[in-house]
Amino acid sequence: MSKQKTSDSPGPGPGPGPGSVSSSDSGVTSGCVSMKSDWSKDSPMNFKPGPGPADEGSDSESSSSCESIKSDGSMVEPIGFKPGPGPADEGVSQQSSQVLRGGSAPQHQTHLDSIFMLLEDNMVTFMKEELKKMKKLLSPDYPACSESEREDEDEEQRSSRESFLRITLDFLRRMKQEELAQRLWSKTFAGVCQKKLKHDLKKRFQRVCEGVAKQGESTLLNQIYTELHITEGGAAEVNQEHEVRQIEAASRTADRAERSIGPGDMFKGPPGRSQPIRTVLTKGVAGIGKTVLTQKFTLDWAEDKDNQDVHFIFPFTFRELNVVKEKKFSFVDLVHHFFTETKEAGLCSFEDFQVIFIFDGLDECRLPLDFQHTDFLTEVTESTSVDVLLTSLIRGKLLPSARLWITTRPAAANQIPADCVDMVTEVRGFTDPQKEEYFRRRFREEEQASRIISHIKTSRSLHIMCHIPVFCWITATVLEKVLKSREAGELPKTLTQMYIHHLVVQAKGNKVKYDGGAATDPHWSPESREMIESLGKLAFDQLQKGNLIFYLSDLKKCDINLRAASMYSGMFTQIFREESGLYQDMVFCFIHLSLQEFLAALHVHQTFINSGTNLLEEKQTTIQQSPQQPQLHHLHQRAVDEALKSPNGHLDLFLRFLLGLSLETNQSLLRGLLTQTGSSSQSNPETVQYIKEKLSESLSAERSINLFHCLNELNDGSLVKEIQWYLRSGSLHPARLSPAQWSALVFILLSSEEDLKEFDLKKYSASEEALLKLLPVVKASSKALLSCCGLSERSCGALSSVLSSQSSSLTHLDLSNNDLQDSGVKRLSLGLESPHCKLEALSLSGCLVSEEGCASLVSAVRSKSSHLRELDLSYNHPGDSGVKELSAAVEDPHCSLETLRLSGCGLSERSCGALSSVLSSQSSSLTHLDLSNNQLQDSGVEKLSAPLEDPHCSLETLRLSCCGLSERSCGALSSVLSSQSSSLTHLDLSNNDLQDSGVKRLSLGLESPHCKLEALSLSGCLVSEEGCASLVSAVRSKSSHLRELDLSYNHPGDSGVKELSAAVEDPHCSLETLRLSGCGLSERSCGALSSVLSSQSSSLTHLDLSNNELQDSGVKRLSLGLLT
Q1: Of the residues 264, 279, 447, 901, which has the fewest C-beta atoms closer than 10 A?
Q2: What pLDDT score was predicted for residue 480?
Q3: Domain annotation for the chain: domains and CATH numbers
Q4: Rounded to 10 degrees, what is the CA torsion of 496, 502, 507, 512?
């Protein structure tokens, strides 16, 4: 018997999809006739084709939304089916059954027809309602997905709906509507897939093991998670410095004002940014908390706490991707491979959804990411190598609507081209308050937590390292054990002591946990000694190769088996997801780079003590081969030399540990592990002397600072104590300081939080030589005061390098009154143009800058990356042409300059024309302008006044002191003050020949209800009692905002002051500051002012009566008012 063929089109992806309908899919019982049987073998149905490509109205691109067919949102009112025969018709029903069994009952044919007519009505109603919902689901404005199910819908109803969905998908395919079928499939099952994905991610990330990735007791992530300090900014470029140096730099900037970002705000741009953020690159040193941050982000989404506009989050790690680097996948297959929920749901299209892909650990990537020569893919179903999939995704060729979040250590940041990254963020670890919060969460007992926090603050090296969360965990573990121990001695103060204690804690814990020993048993057994030796060899071998992660084969070379490694999970962690069953290779690393460096140093020390072999020598000799007994200081000197040779300081911490291990007090902690100990009594003084000799050489600041840390490890603070004595005694003579003492001064200042807030060079030596020696301190400071220090072009070159440094913290720089000239400003401008420059305020007042130097600053001010808000060029010679160039730069939309000072620059009316253009510019950010001590004349002020009334003008402060102004200027400025669109709040007209007539005209503006002025200076303007009287009316005005009035060096007379005093007592007067210095006042004025002071309605808080002949009697009268 021939069968009618059904469509054999495959579904849209793995698992059930919109392919052919089978009897099991249809939901019909086994008693029903198959659609493929003879019964259905009528003429084939002629399906009408769907709309072609030109008129696919229903196939338009959908919005990013999805809804399960099980969701509330996809449900309409329950379908009202017409009832079939009731219990009274059971006989008829039985007779109908006979008909179905083939019995002869023609008399019941009519009733059977009615049943089927009713059935047809119900089925048509059902189908219409379902099709209506499907159409609604595919509409562009359908809301975001919801996976909640209807409570009143039973399994049969759900099964019927799903079966009808499959039939609909099959029909769409037969109508050649493949894309519509795929979209309908994805959107109906996306809600179910999302729910399953959230459930699995919640299960995967809700618990963490601190410090270790597999073993140990797990804790709820939400219970122990402490907010990290995450900042926006920086560039996606390489930073090859040793990460401890980067941590030290970060520790100095942790409390600075930067835009902090919360874990859920990674894709939310800064205020004012309109373009969406697609790709975020997050940098941070090892152990700083990048992985936990991505886990928290994912967990918050899975628990419906944050980012609920996102439909799917897929977190990958590069460690996972390394394992499949030899395989080929389509992007869909890659997602299915790691997230089987998507495969089960047949999710093969991501374009309709808001999706975030997280790629954690770019620095561990072993895929050849080539962004220059790769043939990029655009189709998610096309197969290729994993590296091509990633580069295509990051380039935006594949899934351009998807969001990407990539984390990396700084050294690998430049693997992603800058034009592929929309925002760079940096995890700075814990700020000082966050460190405290961590320890208080870790230790519920207040006294214990406070003692631990107090101890960490006493050791700068420990306090700095506690910026790293994993080091906080190590510190907490060690100090908890030491405090509980019966033989608890002094708490560890140095890094070496901390790691020695950590090693002991691990060994003792393993002895009890794995070997069944008692807590009081000796913790070093032959097996544990052998294990530590093997771990040390592995650490040293891999450190020399620059490897931070390694494989099972690397362990085997050092005779380490998997069980042994797992016993030391507090130092060494196995990183793979065992439950997924995906990986053939196992990846390992130490829980932090610093621990690897400690174990490497321990291995080098042990090897030398036991055999005399110096592992740092290129040609190694043993005691037997050496003609003379090798000394420990030879090993140390070799280590110092090797560390100083390193271009990026990768042996800095290794050197600190190696020297620290030579102390007998530290060796006593390792008694039982070190079968032999070296004598430090002879070796260490020679090592100290060698380090001091090196400090006398021309070393970089970073190298000098590390050598001081080394001296700390050797318990030698002699150099630091010398400089501290000089500083305390005030006998610091820079000319007498040796290079080593200069280095010691840098070390001390870098350890001082107070000095780094504001560094004033004059405290130490106002000289160029001192500046160049203390440049690392300038680099680490927020504010540097270098005025009047005899600096030249040479200093500008050095400061330019500071400004362009990625680790610079400098935001305010005062170079005023130095002979920098145009050549120096040109060199400085190169640093100002750097994308790393963070400078916000620059003072070059009195630095002999001409039009040429001004032109070089213009380029820096216009730079897109510039943060400069304040520029002081007072008492230079930019000329009208220089001001014209500068004005054009301030109008540039990229310029962020808010304050410009051009006092005493020999400017004329011509400059006012150029500046007036700035004031009326919509793109200008200028709010403060100082043009004092220039001969602008009334004509210049008139040119400035017109734009001040422009609605686009944002100027709030205008200083026109000593500008040759008269009554005419007051008329122009009065018009500005009474303008509704004026923003002016501070006006300085001091030392101009305004006279009473000018003040009268100005007062008209002050009385205007539109006037916003808060501070007015009329010092030295030849104002008499008459002018004072006109001001009284303005001060008393209900609409007045005036808070500050300066009438110093005028002639108001006692009667003028009496009128003014009465006005200040008026409840409508809001004056808080009144300056009457040098006004020729007598005792009589004091009587009037005394009344003001005692008045309940007065707002006066500041009164200046300097340079007046008040006499004792006048002061007595004032005192009475003060006593009231």
Answers
A1: 447
A2: 87
A3: 7-27+62-80+105-198 (no CATH), 227-429 (3.40.50), 965-1124 (3.80.10.10)
A4: 160
219 and 791 Cβ atoms separated by less than 8 Å: no
**Among 846, 947, 931, which Cα is nearest to 886's?**
931
| Cβ proximity of 867 and 835 under 8 Å | no
Tens of pLDDT, residue by residue over 975-1011, are: 999 999 899 999 999 999 999 999 999 999 999 999 9
Neighbours of 623 (CB within 10 A): 13
Q: Which residues of 60-85 are buried (b: 16+ CB within 10 A; e: fewer)?
A: eebebbbbbbbbebbbeeeeeeeeee
Give the separation between CA 837 and CA 810, rounded to whole angstroms: 8
Token couple for 163: 């079966």
Does residue 90 surpass a pLDDT of 50?
Answer: no
The number of angstroms, rounded, from the C-alpha of 603 to the middle of its chain's C-alpha atoms is 38
Listed in sequence order, the residues at least 6 apart from 57 whose beta carbon sits closer than 8 Å to its beta carbon are 51
**Pair 235, 806: CB distance under 8 Å:** yes
In the beta sheet, which residues pair with residue 404? 279, 357
- Grouping H, G, I as helix, E, B as strand and the rest as coil, residue 979 is coil
Q: Which residues contact 114 (CB under 8 A, 6 or more apart)?
A: none
Q: Tell me the per-residue pLDDT of 1037-1053, one tens digit each, with 9 for 90 and over.
A: 888 899 999 999 999 98
Tokens of 969: 């200027």
pLDDT digits over 118-135, tens only? 888 888 988 888 888 888
CB neighbour burial string for 537-551, b if at least 16 within 10 angstroms, e if fewer: bbbbbbbeeeebbbe
Helix (H) or strand (E) holding 944: helix 937-948
CA–CA distance, 801 with 25 (Å, rounded to integer): 72
Segment among 483-497, 656-670, 792-806, 879-893 with least mean pLDDT:
483-497
Query: Whole-model pTM?
Result: 0.64
Q: Which run of H or of E encompasses 281?
A: strand 279-283
HEC per residue, 423-461: EEEEECCCCHHHHHHHHHHHCCCHHHHHHHHHHHHHCHH
Percent of the chain with pLDDT over 90: 30
* DSSP secondary structure string for all residues of 474-519: HHHHHHHHHHH-TT--SPP-SHHHHHHHHHHHHHHHHHHHTT---T
What angle is formed at CA 958 by the lines to CA 953 and CA 960, rounded to 5 degrees? 135
Element (H, E) at 384: strand 384-385
Q: Token pair for residue 383? A: 């197969």
Dihedral sign computed on CA atoms, order 563, 564, 568, 572: negative
Taking the C-alpha atoms of residue 534 and residue 557, their distance in angstroms, rounded to an integer, is: 9
Bridge-based pairing state of the strands 355-360 and 403-408: parallel
CB crowding 269-281: b at 16 or more within 10 Å, else e: eeeeeeeebbbbb
How many Å apart are CA 580 and CA 419, to the nearest integer? 35
CA distances from 97 to 34, 92, 103 (A): 20, 9, 8
Question: What Cα–Cα distance (Å) separates residue 109 from each residue in 22, 92, 95, 489?
Answer: 31, 11, 10, 101
First to last CA, the chain: 117
How many residues in total does the chain contain? 1124
Q: How confident is the model at residue 924 (pLDDT cuts 50, 70, 90)?
A: confident
pLDDT exceeds cutoff 70 at 810:
yes
| pLDDT above 70 coverage of the chain, percent | 77
Residue in the block written with tokens 């040796």? 738
Distance (Å, whole) CA 656 – CA 671 = 20
**Exposed (0-12), middle (13-18) or buried (19+): which is 1101, by Cβ within 10 Å?**
exposed
The identity of residue 258, as a single letter, is E
